[in-house]
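In the previous chapter we treated chains in isolation. Here, by contrast, the input contains three separate entities that must be folded as one system, with a combined length of 937 residues.
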Amino acid sequence: MLQGHLDAITAAGYVEGWAFDSDAPLRSLTVSVRVGDAELAYGIANRYRWDLADAGCGTGWCAFRLKLDGAVEDLVDRPLLLCEAASGREILRSPPLPLADDSEPDLSSLEDVVLSDPTLVQSIEQLKGCGAVFADFIAAAGVENFVAAGYVYVLGRPADRQGLAIYAAYLQRGTITPWDFLRALHDSDEFRATPRLLTAPCEPGFVFYHP
Amino acid sequence: MSLFTGAALLLSLPGAEVERIDWPGSLVAPGEILAAPVSPELRAAVRLVWGEALRRGMAMHCVARPELFADGPSRRWLRTRAPGVTQHLCLSDGHAIKPLAGLQTHVFFYRLVDRANMLALARLCRRAGELMAQVGSQVNTHLALGDDVDAARPPSVLLHAATPLEHPPPVLLPLFYNCNSDEDSANRTEQAGPVAAERLTDAARLHYLPLTETALDDSAFARVVARTVLEACFDPTRLLVLRLPAGGGERTPAQRIAAMLPALRHSGVVIPRASAGNIVFATEDLEEDHTKLARLPRHILVHDSFDFWRHTPGFYAGAEQVAVCAGPDPASPAHLPPTCLPYDVRDAYGPRAIRRRIDAAA
Amino acid sequence: MTPIMARPKITVDVRPLFETHWTGIPVFTRRLVQALLRHGGVEVDFMFHLTRISAAPVLAAIAAGTGSLLRQTFESEAAFRSEVADRSAPMLYPSVKDSFGVAAREASTVHDLSTLLMPEFHEEANIAYHLDTLARQLATDDAVFCISEATRAALLAAFPSAAGKARLLYQYVDWPEHFATVARNLPPLRLGPYAVVVGTIEPRKNLGLLLRALATQALRRSPLRFVVIGRRGWKVEQFMAELPEAARERMLFSGFVSEFTKYRLIQGAEFLVFPSIYEGFGIPALEAMSLGKPVLASWSSSLPEVVGEAGVLFDPLSVGDFADALETIAHPRKLAELAPLARSGSAAFTWQRMAAPVVEWAGG
């Protein structure tokens, strides 16, 4: 089921909100924002927000901030339509949105550019909302394959036999959650010594995506 | 087509030395190479080839990396700046031969006396036999480029040096031979310090053996060297000068001595510890100018692989005898050579040169 | 009723996909597999060390962009219950061949001849890996694919006997489709005017040329900064330490970044600087061109062939020539002239063009 919300229009000319498909939480929705038949903004709802994760909105990776075509002043008092772009299905009819201050500055350093990368996980905490995804994966592929995928995802290598056995046992007994397991790998000396870029859940390369 | 054909010759440099040069561009005049911090052997090779080109009225251009010139814009760039070139002479250290499309490739192996380079060439011949087959000629070597009967045998072009290879003056160091320890032998030599050439001029005759890593890898030649050392031990009237192999890197004379002594030790020839002081190592080529040592009647003994062009024809002509050692050596490791082909040693070393056949059994 | 023609079958060796980190040859292999599957003109099977691998783990590895899972699968018990590869079908090696004369028809791929022509840039083990069996590889190949005309010419200069079997196999750029949509909604880059640079301090990539050029008049006058995509590395530190402060401040190093950040940095640049001394193909040039960015490239090896009319070329060993060429390309009028040529030039390299010669060969 498609769910979503429009939160605000920003002074810099963006419309913010969120949208996801509760039947396919890893599939990012491509959405459009309209006034009548006119499309004002278009983009992918794939950004992380901790409040959405806490609220159980998919994995929490379903926010968007879309650049508006048109002057902000013309839009602040108009009702807007949030649609799924591919099918045109309406997700939400919104009353006029409040004008908000901009939450994101322009990118004036390389560090800013790297931190603004929505295709990466910036912190392991951002995977907390993926519990259902991990559970589906385990149900379909088995706990050992989940552990194997976890090693590849975090440490970039096949699981060693000992690690595989230990973590599989813990997960099967429920001693740790799948997220606990990934966090343990992330907090390991090995990862600290050679940190890696971790793909965001909505990206095609996310290893726990199981169609 | 012969090497010195056309209005100009293109000379390319080996990759290992290219990196040492601050290139103003991909194509430079020979003078820029001569002024650059390249090895003395490379400088001598460039000077040798340039001299011959000038003698024949040809220009010469030096190119850093012929592999850059694939096609299209790069080739047009080269043709514009080096018009009239049909022949490409590749200066090679044995690690690579770099053809340049559209030009006939020739090769000048300028430093195969270093073991690593000779081994690299042997590997290259095994890996790229077809490439070897395209070499139009070889300068100052007589090699079969490969082990099998189909190995390429490019004709040889001999260029003789007008001036000897540049190097610092040789330091002469006395031989101390401890058959149980190369390090001890070398250390004693180092502690004894240099010998002044003036103290050696009472000898009746000078025997000069310029040694190289490649030559000493030939166990038959190493045996000849060891026997020559032994004979000098019993003949104080003979001054024996062993020019140390250059090798690579910044090695001290003691290190160079310690590196070459195993060849003598493994030769099976017993060399006494006692020394009359008539056997010395030289850290560089013996000078050709009229130093006191140069005036002594001299016999020169070289291995087939020696780069004769380090010295001028006059140096050899002034010797009583020049013996060039060659021969099959079944004891040599299988990875050695390209094979040195038969040639008239007098073409390289002058009319006093003789070929001295050596073999493992002797 | 017209009989339906069976598609020819081909077995692709996916050894390159077993690497953990995919650059160069693994990415080439990935693109090749995807092009062949998309083309549909051949039935594609996969193997590793002559052991058949099913499509599922290969496609999962391609989706994940790493070979770690593939290695895990292959080392499991299941691999030992697998079948041998079908030797009746042509076997295609996207890189070095490790078996010779097993199939009736075999093809390998030559990416460049740098181990033969520039051994000073390689460890001996790598030289041995590429060259010890090259002659045998070529002798047992029915076709040998070369990733550029320059590579093909270099191969034939050294191995003329391969003339009848050497074919071109151009790759293509395939940014993920969603990158453009994601990028358009992000805040703009405010890094000032900059050129993006592909290169490291390793001699073959020739970053040192740019660093030396910073001292020239032309570059001192230019407002451009230079964003190097990649890690800084200790050798770069040494080089940078010798530069005046004003020059150092113009060089920015991104560190190891995602494909998306690389995309953004190229998209925000004025042009790409590609000073490499030698390339087998030069995919970074094509990546920049696909985003409408002209390329300032050396005229060496394959680069003119890839860049075409979409850039300005220079002598890779000449600081002066590089500085002049940079001054030329940085002019707004020149950039405007070259931008459409960059896009059209890149559009000539497609997945169809990559698949076609292989499909043709497989069909016999």
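The interface with chain A takes residues 20-21, 63-66, 68-69, 71-72, 75, 176, 178, 181-182, 184-191, 227, 252-261, 264-265 of chain C (CB under 8 Å). The two ends of chain C are 25 Å apart (CA to CA). Compare these points with the single-chain example from earlier in the chapter.
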